[in-house]
Each structure stands twice: as structure tokens, then as C-alpha cells.
Specification:
315 residues; alpha+beta; Rossmann fold; Dna Ligase, domain 1; D-amino Acid Aminotransferase, Chain A, domain 1; five-stranded antiparallel beta sheet; four-stranded antiparallel beta sheet; 9 helices; 14 strands
């Protein structure tokens, strides 16, 4: 196969690992920055150009879309999909996971547990918001953001009010979320590829920090994930429509609560913590994904050909 990894830099750990894994499995692989693509929409024939020339045909695209280029990155992924190139993950699924409120809405519709989450646009009903999430402290989040960016804790009503007024004044969309006291400074990252969890770790925040992200100095420890947590992670990934996802969960007294689904999860922290070759599993999934699509296409073509034969036989 010829594989394209969409990434801002070929030097990034996750990108390098995917390239090495693809080559080890006998594939040809390229890396390209989404911002280097020019998209052209024509009647019935979408086109794209990479550094001034039409890119070669790719059998599959593996998007690594950073939060800073989400909008244009999604446009590039959509364009590949319009041209019939399968993407692991697709544009719709990535967009769902990037919008924290939308993700929570979809998860709760499927009866998947999440921290109580409230969205509002004026401070008028602040007391009601706090009552709904169980009072302070609360977590305040930007609706777009990754690696703990835009995630804050507010300990008092006054702190919540000040945060909301500041963020709303900057034109930011935010959500207010229930604080799960029993998981203070800890969460679980489950890495899902296809329909199963391939690796999991418990992350613990460094001293003085409540965010457990590895990028924030948190420490990771390999764990054998309980079956209930595995089911929750796989179900959340399926709801988003993702093939590859990093699912963050809180350990509450009532079981797993889905915190976030990352459509471009980093490989460095979890591979080094667990020793699992996740890049190889992603490439293997890409192989099966392309083959499955090929079988479906051949089946559709066979049906169409049968219908054509039947019409030719009509008197």
C-alpha cells in the first residue's frame, strides 16, 4: 500500500513511529503537512495540489490533525474522502471528537456515562449551573483544546464567575463540568484501535497540578484495564465514529466516566509507559480498513454488473 500520514512535522515522535511501522510492514509511506495542500472544487471532480503538483494516489490516509489546524485539516481530510481515499479517521468523526460539548451530547444519547456537563452563554443563571454540577469546585473547559490546554479548576463561586466572564468576553465557548473528587489528579488513558483497547495507563498529575496529561508533567503507569472500562472506551470510540482514539476516563465511585476522546492521540507517552507497539497496530488496522472497503466496493460492483446483465437479457 501507499500510505500518507498527515502531520505538521515528520520529526514528531508519533509521526516517526507510524512511518517506521508502515515501512516495517512493507508499505510505501509519505508525510505531508495539511497546510501545504491546495484544494480545488470543480463540478463533479474535486482536485488537490501538494506543493504545486497533484499528489500521487494513496491507498489510505492517516490524519494527525493538531488542534491549531483543525479547520483546514478537516477540509483536507474531507477532500481526500470526496476523492475516494479512505481516511483513518474520517473528517466527521474528528470534528465530533474535537467539540467537547458535541461529544458529550452524543455519548449521553447512547447512555454512556460522563461527568455532569453544563453549557451556557450568560452568567445570569450561574447559581443554577453550579447546582446542576454539584457545586464547587468545578472544571471549566474551552470547547476546543487538547493536552490539557484550556482546562481550569475553579474552587469558589467567585472564581467561576470571573473565569466565565473573562472567557466569554474573549468570545470563547466554554463548558462547566462536575469535579470528580475521588479521581483527583488522576485519570485513565485507554488507546483504542478498531474495536479493542490495545494499551492503557493511569496518569497522575505532578505536585501542584490537577491535570494529569503527560505533556503537563504527569506520570503514567501501565495498567490492566477492568472490563467495564474497556467496554466504555470502545463504546465511546464507536459513538464518535473513530477507528483510532485515545479515550480519557475518570475513575468514579459509580464506574468509568468518559472525559474526552482524542482523535489524534500521541503515541510517545503510552508506548513508553506500556511497551506496546501501538504504531504497528494502527498500520495493521489501516490494512484491514482498506481491504474491508475493497470487499464492499467489489460487492457493490458485482450487484451493479448483475443488474446490467439482467437488463441486457430483457426482451
Amino acid at each position: 500500500m501507499r500510505i500518507l500520514v498527515l502531520s505538521r512535522s515528520s520529526a514528531l515522535y508519533s509521526t516517526t513511529r507510524l512511518v517506521l511501522a508502515a515501512r516495517a510492514r512493507g508499505h510505501e509511506v509519505d508525510v505531508a503537512d495539511v497546510l501545504q495542500f491546495h484544494l480545488c472544487v470543480k463540478r463533479g471532480r474535486p482536485e488537490m495540489y501538494l506543493r504545486g503538483a497533484a499528489p500521487p494516489h494513496y491507498d489510505v490516509v492517516i490524519p494527525r490533525i493538531g488542534a491549531s489546524v483543525t479547520s483546514y485539516g478537516l477540509a483536507v481530510v474531507r477532500h481526500f474522502e470526496m476523492m475516494g481515499v479512505p481516511c483513518l479517521n474520517g473528517a466527521v468523526a474528528i470534528a465530533r471528537s474535537r467539540d467537547k460539548l458535541r461529544a458529550m451530547q452524543l455519548l449521553t444519547k447512547k447512555d454512556i456515562d460522563v461527568p455532569i456537563t453544563v453549557c451556557a452563554r450568560t452568567p445570569k443563571d450561574l447559581d443554577l449551573m453550579l447546582e446542576l454540577v454539584g457545586g464547587t469546585p468545578v472544571i471549566v473547559k474551552l470547547q476546543q483544546g487538547t493536552q490539557g490546554i484550556g482546562v481550569m479548576i475553579a474552587e469558589t463561586r467567585q472564581a467561576v464567575s470571573s473565569l466565565l466572564e473573562t472567557l466569554w468576553g474573549m468570545g470563547q465557548d466554554i463548558i462547566v463540568q462536575q469535579y470528580i473528587a475521588e479521581s483527583k489528579g488522576r485519570d485513565i488513558r485507554a488507546f483504542v484501535v478498531g474495536t479493542r483497547v490495545v494499551a492503557a495507563m493511569r496518569r497522575s498529575a505532578k505536585a501542584g497540578e490537577f491535570r494529569s496529561n503527560i505533556h503537563r508533567g504527569g506520570a503514567g503507569h501501565r495498567i490492566q484495564l477492568d472490563e467495564a472500562y474497556q467496554r466504555a472506551a470502545v463504546a465511546a470510540t464507536k459513538v464518535m465514529g473513530l477507528e483510532v482514539a485515545g479515550v480519557d476516563m475518570l475513575e468514579s465511585s459509580t464506574g468509568p466516566k468518559i472525559l474526552e476522546i482524542n482523535s489524534s492521540p500521541g503515541l510517545e507517552g503510552i508506548e513508553r509507559t506500556t511497551g506496546v507497539d501501538i504504531a504497528d497496530k494502527i498500520v495493521a488496522r489501516a490494512e484491514r480498513y482498506v481491504e474491508r472497503r475493497g470487499r464492499r466496493r467489489r460487492a457493490v460492483d458485482a450487484v451493479i454488473e448483475d443488474e446490467r446483465r439482467a437488463r441486457r437479457l430483457l426482451p
